[in-house]
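Incident review: delayed structure delivery

Summary: a single-chain prediction request sat in the queue longer than the usual turnaround. Root cause was a stuck worker, restarted by the on-call engineer. No data loss occurred. The affected request and its eventual output are reproduced below so the record is complete for anyone auditing the incident later.

Affected input:
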Amino acid sequence: MQDSTNIVCPSCGGVNRVPRGRNPMEAKCGSCKTPLFSGSPLALNAAQFDRQVGRSDVPVLVDFWAPWCAPCRRTAPEFAKAASLLEPNVRLAKVDTEAQPGIGARFNIRSIPTMVLFRGGTEIARVSGAMNAGQIVSWVQGNVA
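Output delivered after worker restart:
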Protein backbone atom coordinates (compact mmCIF):
# COMPACT_ATOMS: atom_id res chain seq x y z
CA MET A 1 0.00 0.00 0.00
CA GLN A 2 1.28 3.43 -0.96
CA ASP A 3 1.93 5.91 1.80
CA SER A 4 1.02 8.87 -0.42
CA THR A 5 -1.26 9.85 -3.30
CA ASN A 6 -0.10 11.76 -6.38
CA ILE A 7 -2.40 14.72 -7.05
CA VAL A 8 -1.87 17.09 -9.98
CA CYS A 9 -2.16 20.79 -9.19
CA PRO A 10 -5.09 22.40 -11.04
CA SER A 11 -3.10 25.62 -11.44
CA CYS A 12 0.53 24.85 -12.33
CA GLY A 13 0.26 21.14 -13.22
CA GLY A 14 2.83 20.09 -10.64
CA VAL A 15 2.51 16.58 -9.25
CA ASN A 16 2.14 16.63 -5.46
CA ARG A 17 2.56 13.67 -3.12
CA VAL A 18 -0.09 13.96 -0.43
CA PRO A 19 0.51 11.65 2.55
CA ARG A 20 -2.26 9.15 3.26
CA GLY A 21 -4.28 10.29 6.25
CA ARG A 22 -3.93 13.96 5.33
CA ASN A 23 -7.12 15.64 4.13
CA PRO A 24 -6.55 16.36 0.40
CA MET A 25 -9.15 19.19 0.57
CA GLU A 26 -6.71 21.03 2.84
CA ALA A 27 -3.58 20.24 0.78
CA LYS A 28 -1.85 22.93 -1.27
CA CYS A 29 0.56 22.65 -4.18
CA GLY A 30 4.18 22.55 -3.07
CA SER A 31 5.17 24.81 -5.99
CA CYS A 32 2.46 27.45 -6.41
CA LYS A 33 0.60 27.07 -3.07
CA THR A 34 -2.81 26.73 -4.82
CA PRO A 35 -5.30 24.39 -3.10
CA LEU A 36 -5.28 21.00 -4.84
CA PHE A 37 -9.09 20.81 -4.78
CA SER A 38 -11.68 23.56 -4.98
CA GLY A 39 -14.90 21.57 -5.19
CA SER A 40 -15.50 22.73 -8.76
CA PRO A 41 -14.63 21.29 -12.18
CA LEU A 42 -11.45 22.23 -14.04
CA ALA A 43 -11.54 23.42 -17.66
CA LEU A 44 -8.77 21.52 -19.46
CA ASN A 45 -6.76 22.09 -22.62
CA ALA A 46 -4.78 19.27 -24.27
CA ALA A 47 -1.62 19.59 -22.14
CA GLN A 48 -3.58 19.91 -18.90
CA PHE A 49 -5.78 16.97 -19.88
CA ASP A 50 -2.82 14.63 -20.37
CA ARG A 51 -1.25 15.71 -17.09
CA GLN A 52 -4.45 15.47 -14.99
CA VAL A 53 -5.57 12.16 -16.46
CA GLY A 54 -2.15 10.53 -16.82
CA ARG A 55 -0.27 11.58 -13.69
CA SER A 56 -2.88 11.63 -10.94
CA ASP A 57 -3.67 8.72 -8.62
CA VAL A 58 -7.15 10.22 -8.20
CA PRO A 59 -9.75 9.08 -10.76
CA VAL A 60 -10.73 11.86 -13.18
CA LEU A 61 -14.25 12.33 -14.55
CA VAL A 62 -14.23 14.38 -17.76
CA ASP A 63 -17.34 16.04 -19.17
CA PHE A 64 -16.97 16.43 -22.95
CA TRP A 65 -19.27 19.30 -23.97
CA ALA A 66 -19.73 22.25 -26.35
CA PRO A 67 -21.13 25.75 -25.76
CA TRP A 68 -23.87 25.36 -28.41
CA CYS A 69 -25.23 22.13 -26.87
CA ALA A 70 -28.44 22.70 -24.84
CA PRO A 71 -28.18 19.41 -22.87
CA CYS A 72 -24.56 20.31 -22.08
CA ARG A 73 -25.63 23.68 -20.70
CA ARG A 74 -28.32 21.98 -18.59
CA THR A 75 -25.79 19.48 -17.27
CA ALA A 76 -23.10 22.06 -16.39
CA PRO A 77 -24.55 23.22 -13.03
CA GLU A 78 -25.31 19.60 -12.09
CA PHE A 79 -21.72 18.61 -12.95
CA ALA A 80 -20.50 21.45 -10.72
CA LYS A 81 -22.70 20.19 -7.85
CA ALA A 82 -21.31 16.69 -8.38
CA ALA A 83 -17.76 18.08 -8.12
CA SER A 84 -18.52 19.47 -4.68
CA LEU A 85 -19.81 16.03 -3.64
CA LEU A 86 -17.14 13.81 -5.23
CA GLU A 87 -13.90 15.72 -4.60
CA PRO A 88 -11.32 14.83 -3.33
CA ASN A 89 -12.02 11.18 -4.17
CA VAL A 90 -12.57 12.01 -7.86
CA ARG A 91 -11.33 15.02 -9.84
CA LEU A 92 -13.98 16.53 -12.16
CA ALA A 93 -12.93 18.29 -15.34
CA LYS A 94 -14.50 19.66 -18.50
CA VAL A 95 -13.26 19.60 -22.09
CA ASP A 96 -14.86 21.93 -24.62
CA THR A 97 -14.89 19.80 -27.77
CA GLU A 98 -15.09 22.92 -29.95
CA ALA A 99 -11.96 24.46 -28.43
CA GLN A 100 -10.13 21.11 -28.02
CA PRO A 101 -11.27 18.93 -30.97
CA GLY A 102 -8.19 16.73 -30.81
CA ILE A 103 -9.08 15.35 -27.38
CA GLY A 104 -12.63 14.56 -28.46
CA ALA A 105 -11.34 12.80 -31.58
CA ARG A 106 -8.73 10.88 -29.58
CA PHE A 107 -11.44 9.43 -27.33
CA ASN A 108 -13.99 8.91 -30.11
CA ILE A 109 -16.54 11.31 -28.63
CA ARG A 110 -19.53 11.06 -30.99
CA SER A 111 -22.27 12.71 -28.92
CA ILE A 112 -22.30 15.30 -26.18
CA PRO A 113 -22.53 15.57 -23.32
CA THR A 114 -20.41 12.49 -22.76
CA MET A 115 -18.71 11.80 -19.44
CA VAL A 116 -15.65 9.58 -19.37
CA LEU A 117 -14.14 8.24 -16.15
CA PHE A 118 -10.38 7.65 -16.11
CA ARG A 119 -8.18 5.89 -13.58
CA GLY A 120 -4.42 5.75 -13.98
CA GLY A 121 -4.68 7.26 -17.47
CA THR A 122 -7.07 4.54 -18.70
CA GLU A 123 -10.74 4.92 -19.51
CA ILE A 124 -12.80 2.76 -17.14
CA ALA A 125 -16.35 3.91 -17.98
CA ARG A 126 -18.37 6.30 -20.14
CA VAL A 127 -21.93 7.56 -20.34
CA SER A 128 -23.66 9.94 -22.74
CA GLY A 129 -26.61 12.23 -22.12
CA ALA A 130 -27.70 14.83 -19.62
CA MET A 131 -27.74 13.77 -15.95
CA ASN A 132 -28.44 15.49 -12.66
CA ALA A 133 -25.90 15.67 -9.83
CA GLY A 134 -27.33 12.65 -8.00
CA GLN A 135 -27.18 10.52 -11.14
CA ILE A 136 -23.60 11.62 -11.83
CA VAL A 137 -22.48 10.83 -8.27
CA SER A 138 -24.23 7.45 -8.29
CA TRP A 139 -22.78 6.52 -11.69
CA VAL A 140 -19.24 7.51 -10.64
CA GLN A 141 -19.42 5.70 -7.31
CA GLY A 142 -20.70 2.57 -9.05
CA ASN A 143 -17.75 2.62 -11.44
CA VAL A 144 -14.98 3.59 -9.03
CA ALA A 145 -15.80 1.00 -6.35
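Verification: The chain has one domain: 38-144.
Action items: add queue-age alerting; document worker restart procedure.
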